[in-house]
Amino acid sequence: MIQNVLRCLVAFAAMLLLAVEPAFAISRIKDVASLQSGRENQLIGYGLVVGLQGTGDSLRSSPFTEQSLRAMLQNLGISTQGGESRSKNIAAVLVTANLPPFASPGSRIDVTVGSLGDSTSLRGGTLVMTSLSGADGQIYAVAQGSVVVTGFSAQGQAASVQQGVTTAGRVPNGAIIERELPAKFKDGVNLTLQLRNPDFSTAVGMADTINRYASHRYGGRIAEARDSQTVVIDRPKMADLAKLMADIENLEIQTDTPARVVVNERTGTIVIGQDVRIAPVAVSFGTLTVQVTETPTVVQPAPFSRGETAVEPNTNIQAQQTGGTVAMLNGSNLRSLVSGLNSIGVKPDGIISILQGIKTAGALQAELVLQ
């Protein structure tokens, strides 16, 4: 009997916990922040894609492609003096990649290629050996391999169809890293964590969580929130930075974000944050539709008369207004706000207009971001 009562109490407590909406989200530090010294670096290079089926650059319209082709053949020991190439199987491309943090020579990364000339498709092409340089001008990787294009196009004499982009593609694992970054992780004296979404509450909470861990492990405070985005961690004596970072990045913290409503008018997408509130406000929404129809009438003259055939215009205009009901909105939480907007019975474009009007009236307690 006592066990049954305890089970009922546990189930009731679980229901209460599920019914309460948490104001904060629990996340690991590795999911909300990144190591400053462990950021990615961008690489760029210029190369050629060969093996295209007549969809490459027109060498007359893209002279840089012909110059690159001649330079490549000369490096291979083939003389091109006095010759004129009309090949349509080659295209000049720009190659980009992201060098991951702590990448070592010999590892591979993905690269992205995009056409520079008037090529119509890179499908079936092969990227020729291309050097990838960083912002300092040093070569950090070399790319080569088959280009994967997801889009396709087909064309006939009277019709054509195209899906996706055929002038850009990827080379999976197409670049080999040849040089590592000069900075070493363990050479630093501290760790700097940068929040992906800057917020003072989250930064201070992260520093407090790290200090509680450090007080238990090392006997002192090691973290300080410098601003809304940066948390600096001093290296304890005799502590290994890699082990320290592995322990810190798995600590769980409460993340907080400002109240924000993101609206994309092109797609009709509306994203409402957890902490968005609306003061009591009355909203009326109505749609006015005006339809103009032209039905001209041809008027014929009487038989054996000298009249002329004329066209008599006939215009029909209809105006229709829907909606117009007044609804009360009081968004004390996200669930009641969504229920109130749905109760008006309008489409996403109408909700966008309503949110803009509520913001102008000063009743929307959130930032309205229009995309």
Give the tally of structural domains: 3
Strand element count: 22
**Helix percentage:** 10-25%
The gross shape turns out to be flat
Plain-language structure description:
It contains 7 helices and 22 strands. By secondary structure, it is α+β, with helices and mostly antiparallel strands. The protein folds into 3 domains: 41-149 and 163-177, no CATH class; 184-255, Alpha-Beta Plaits; 260-295 and 313-370, no CATH class. It has a 6-stranded antiparallel beta barrel. A 4-stranded antiparallel sheet has the order 2-11-13-12. A 3-stranded mixed sheet has the order 16-15-22, covered by helices on one side. The longest helix has 18 residues, at 2-19. The radius of gyration is 33 Å and the shape is flat.
How do the helices and strands line up, and which of them pair or pack?
Layout: H1 2-19, E1 25-28, H2 29-32, E2 33-35, E3 41-50, H3 63-75, E4 90-99, E5 108-115, E6 126-133, E7 139-146, E8 152-155, E9 160-163, E10 168-177, E11 190-195, H4 200-217, E12 223-225, E13 230-234, H5 241-248, E14 252-255, E15 260-264, E16 269-272, E17 277-294, E18 297-299, E19 310-312, E20 315-331, H6 334-344, H7 348-361, E21 364-365, E22 367-370
Parallel strand pairs: 15-22
Antiparallel strand pairs: 1-14, 2-11, 3-4, 3-6, 4-5, 5-10, 6-7, 7-10, 8-9, 11-13, 12-13, 15-16, 17-20, 17-21, 18-19
